[in-house]
Design brief:
single chain; about 150 residues; alpha+beta; 5 helices; about 25% helix
Length: about 150
């Protein structure tokens, strides 16, 4: 009984602004649902290429006009081209603290189609490169679209 009363008394001692280590680590997952996302214009201009390493036959690009940053999430349009010229386009997002990605829409006939996927761990080589080297260094989101563009241009 005394332990129960002590636990209740201690539970009320902290301020509501204090967060546990678990809450800080998982705050993106505890956050309210995503804000409505406005799809960017379909990529038609200059694309910035990035390398995923010597073993990939595909070439990968980001549309600089589509990059946006907010609440630890970086959104961007990814363009992947095969050696035969086939092109895949998707509008995606990365949660930098948790290392998760989400696809909002895919390109089809010069426009956007499909429904958003759930957040999932980065697992594809190009996602890992974008995460580690360009958009989420040290698990922290870049500060701005311009910072992302500069990183891709280097």
């Amino acid at each position: 009984m005394r332990v129960w009363v002590l636990a209740l008394a201690l539970a009320g001692c902290g301020t509501s602004a204090e967060k546990s280590d678990w809450e800080r680590e998982h705050e993106e997952k505890l956050a309210p649902a995503d804000e409505p996302v406005v799809l960017p214009a379909y990529p038609r201009g200059e694309l910035l290429e990035f390398s995923t390493g010597p073993t990939s036959e595909f070439r990968f690009f980001v549309d600089p006009a589509s990059i946006s940053v907010g609440s630890g999430v970086v959104r961007y349009t990814l363009v992947a081209r095969s050696p035969t010229g086939a092109t895949n386009v998707s509008f995606e997002a990365m949660r930098c603290r948790s290392g998760e990605v989400r696809i909002y829409a895919v390109g089809r006939d010069g426009g956007w189609a499909g429904r958003a996927t759930e957040w999932r761990a980065t697992r594809m080589p190009w996602q890992n490169v974008l995460y580690r080297d360009y958009f989420c260094p040290l698990r922290q989101a870049i500060a701005s679209r311009d910072e992302g563009i500069r990183a891709l241009q280097r």
